[in-house]
């Protein structure tokens, strides 16, 4: 997300109408819209690998997987944010057309320009979603994954994974994905 708002004072409905006419994606926060910048090739590869692994596991069940073109609405009034991957298992999202409102899992693939935002402000916004049980941050410049899970009393706990770990556990989906799958065909810059 860039720092300067592109438009100000929009209602959610005006945002949806305006954004549908734009060439680039924009997140909506408190009446302002912010352009979402593109990522690197490793970022795109990691995103695709994760979405593909999740889709294979969830196929035929009640959950649905979406990649970076699907918005997540924290509430009906916003903010509306673009995660890299989102999974919803909630029947209330079955016919969603504009945004997912009841996600189970949100994944952000980190880049140097968005890492602080994804770890801080964006995570604070996502934590307001009652159905969200896992928030996963995946490094696109080196092997590393931080998985935040909401425990039974509502506290978010960090479960870090490094290249020494062979797999990542997505507890909310009863799924383990190998680190090799996450980083398949990813070439890091030297």
TrEMBL record:
The cross-references to Pfam families, in alphabetical order and at most eight, read: Uma2 (PF05685)
- UniProt superkingdom: Bacteria
Q: Report the residue ranges that make up the Putative restriction endonuclease domain in this protein.
A: 13-170
InterPro entries linked: Nuclease_put_TT1808, Restrct_endonuc-II-like, Uma2
Q: What is this protein called?
A: Gll1561 protein
């Amino acid at each position: 997300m860039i720092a300067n708002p592109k438009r100000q004072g929009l209602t959610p409905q005006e945002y949806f109408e305006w954004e549908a006419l734009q060439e680039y994606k924009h997140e909506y926060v408190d009446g302002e819209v912010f352009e979402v910048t593109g990522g690197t090739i490793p970022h795109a590869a990691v995103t695709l690998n994760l979405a593909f692994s999740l889709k294979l596991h969830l196929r035929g069940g009640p959950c649905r997987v979406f990649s970076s073109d699907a918005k997540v609405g924290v509430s009906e009034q916003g903010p509306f944010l673009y995660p890299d991957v989102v999974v919803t298992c909630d029947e209330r999202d079955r016919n969603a057309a504009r945004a997912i409102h009841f996600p189970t899992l949100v994944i952000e693939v980190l880049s140097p320009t968005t890492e602080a935002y994804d770890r801080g402000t964006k995570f604070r916004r996502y934590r307001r979603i009652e159905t969200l049980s896992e928030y996963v941050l995946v490094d696109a410049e080196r092997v590393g994954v931080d998985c935040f899970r909401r425990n039974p009393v509502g506290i978010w706990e960090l479960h870090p994974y490094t290249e020494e770990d062979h797999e990542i556990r997505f507890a909310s989906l009863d799924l383990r994905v190998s680190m090799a799958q996450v980083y398949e065909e990813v070439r890091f810059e030297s």
